[in-house]
């Protein structure tokens, strides 16, 4: 598999390149299990983003980043939107678009009410995931005051209001 070498928050990583179609390849970022990279990225992001009241992230790959950000900000909790309702969740809020669903536990929705929120994810591609998270934050009566990610990719999304560390280019052939 082809690899795309990139420095992210001072850490060098080789990102696996996958084909989307004959003309387009994308380099993929997988932070799961990569403590060194997650810690470096979280340190870089807390320098750029004012401490919010609460952090909201998306299952799955946003979770380790949100956990490290919460630790650095000295927070005891952060909130994870799940991809499906779980039996242990209280009455939940959900948002869905183009086959992607995120579900927020009712307890978490109560915690969010009137809070200033940092919405964080590891990666923003089409922007669909981060948009759904923002909508859930709104539904819970809270305000998204910042959005952050490690990487953004592509040009279909406006990144002006997202604090990010690297832009991963699309590879066209
Ligand atoms: O901007 P978008 O085009 O919406 O893409 C970004 C989302 O996609 C990835 O997660 P994925 O849905 O692959 O799930 P995972 O984290 O569970 O692997 C990534 O972690 C973001 O949440
Ligand atoms: N982690 C990731 N890297 C590259 N493209 C993606 N699309 C969705 N998640 C991605």
TrEMBL record:
Enzyme class: transferase
GO MF term list: adenine phosphoribosyltransferase activity
Domain Phosphoribosyltransferase: 39-148
SUPFAM superfamilies to which the protein is assigned, alphabetical: PRTase-like
Residues annotated as transmembrane: none
The UniProt record lists the keyword Thylakoid: no
InterPro entries found in the cross-reference section: PRTase-like, PRTase_dom
Entry keyword DNA damage: no
Top-level taxonomic group: Bacteria
E.C. number(s) listed in UniProt: 2.4.2.7
UniProt keyword list: Glycosyltransferase, Transferase
UniProt xrefs under PANTHER family: PHOSPHORIBOSYLTRANSFERASE, PHOSPHORIBOSYLTRANSFERASE-RELATED
NCBIfam families: PRK07322.1
Record-given protein name: Adenine phosphoribosyltransferase
Gene source species: Savagea serpentis
């Amino acid at each position: 598999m082809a690899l795309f070498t990139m420095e992210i928050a001072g850490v060098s990583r080789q990102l696996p390149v996958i084909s989307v179609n004959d003309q387009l390849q994308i380099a993929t970022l997988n932070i799961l299990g990569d403590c060194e990279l997650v810690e470096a990225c979280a340190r870089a992001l807390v320098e750029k983003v004012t401490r919010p009241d609460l952090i909201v992230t998306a299952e799955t790959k946003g979770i380790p980043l949100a956990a490290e950000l919460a630790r650095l900000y000295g927070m005891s909790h952060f909130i994870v939107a799940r991809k499906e309702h779980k039996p242990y969740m209280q009455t939940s809020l959900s948002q869905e678009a183009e086959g992607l669903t995120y579900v927020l536990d009712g307890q978490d929705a109560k915690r969010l009410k009137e809070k200033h929120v940092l919405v964080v994810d590891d990666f923003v591609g089409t922007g669909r995931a981060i948009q759904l998270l923002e909508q859930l934050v709104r539904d819970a009566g809270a305000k998204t005051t910042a959005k952050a990610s490690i990487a953004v990719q592509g040009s279909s999304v406006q990144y002006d209001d997202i604090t990010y560390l690297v832009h991963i280019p699309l590879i066209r052939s």
